[in-house]
Amino acid sequence: MNQMILLAALASLVGAFPAPARVGEVQTREGKYHEGQVRFTREGLVVINASLDSVTPVGLTNLAQVIFQTNDAFYGLKAADESVETLPEIWQEADIGKVTLAGSTRHIGGVFTVRSSGLDIGGENDSFHYVYKAVTGNTEIVCRVVSVQHTDPLAKAGLMVRDGLAEYSRQVSVGLTAGRGGFFQTRERESTRANVTMYRENYAPQWIKLHREGSQFTGFQSKNGRQWTMVERVTVPMNEKVFVGLAVVSAREFALNWTTIDKVREAPSLLNVDFLPQVELVSGSMLSGRIDSINDQEVNFYGFYRSVTVPTRAVSRIFFQWLPVEMADKVRGGRTGVLLGDGDFFDGEFKAVDKNKLTISSVLFGLRAFEMNNGLMAAVLRRGAPVRPVFEVRTIDGSIWLATSLALDRDELMLEESALGRVRIPSYELAEIRRR
Q: What b/e sequence results for 58-69 when a residue is b if at least 16 CB atoms lie within 10 Å of its CB, and e otherwise?
């Protein structure tokens, strides 16, 4: 078949205004496979393979599966090129208090190597090296402590928020020691000894997080940066403007401690970049996306799903982190409430999600708010009632749509979803279509 005949055949199948094509592989119910440019028509799919001079129509009744090629890099997070050894913009460093040997920091490829002498950050006056930036208002900082050099068993490395740069300033810190486990400590008043709690089981490498909301400070720890456990929560009055950053202590006067820290992020509230929240409908469909808010009427997503209305009454469960197998049973069966990272389940009626907080109404505790990005694993709104779908449609953001029927247009897929009715998905968002 020559090129002119191929184009004529294509025009007769897709009409005068052909829709955009996607590269993919189509499997029919007869067991045949066709690779090439996949286009939608109202009658079904057309697979065009120019190298074979073939144009193959596949009707919906004969469709078993379609897998589209996707550009994952476009939808992922691209790391910045940080090949220089200077500190990132806005960050500063200083020795706080009296130190015998001056500290310093090397930063390359997102990795901080902090060298510090200093004796302690738990006495009446601090003595350590600080990599910090000034922040006004609420803040959250996270990092992974890769290693703490064993200059002393009580050598410390971690995250700190402090009221000022004086050696006696109020401060809250969470971190790890070289040989005595993890720690959480606070200095509630200037020039007083800090209150310290030790956690013997916590050692590097480990993720840590420190969150400030007003006068309330909360420390978290994690083995993988996805599933977080609260370490401690305290109330310490501080100024609106504070200093937040990385603190390293040698605990020996004439020895520089070399500590390695990476994955550092700071913002008023940090998203979990390793997991996209999943909203499970009562039908069993699973929608992935960043949640802006949920009220008594509908779920509002950032980005892709602004054009799709998801009523709150259609939601069964919401997952905010990867759910370990041992916790899965706690969110089955329709028991309403929220599951926390430490395994506790709070019974209650779902009320809303707003400003990164989920609120439930509990018979025992009244209204309770939980940070979406800190320790909240999942929420159960109501019991699900899964259907037996005919098709399963996956989109490039990880969503799974269970459809009772499909229809095709030139640039979109229309599916019937039992909880939402008709849903339109642009062809460029499709990753896979599969008959169940």
A: bebebbbbbbbe
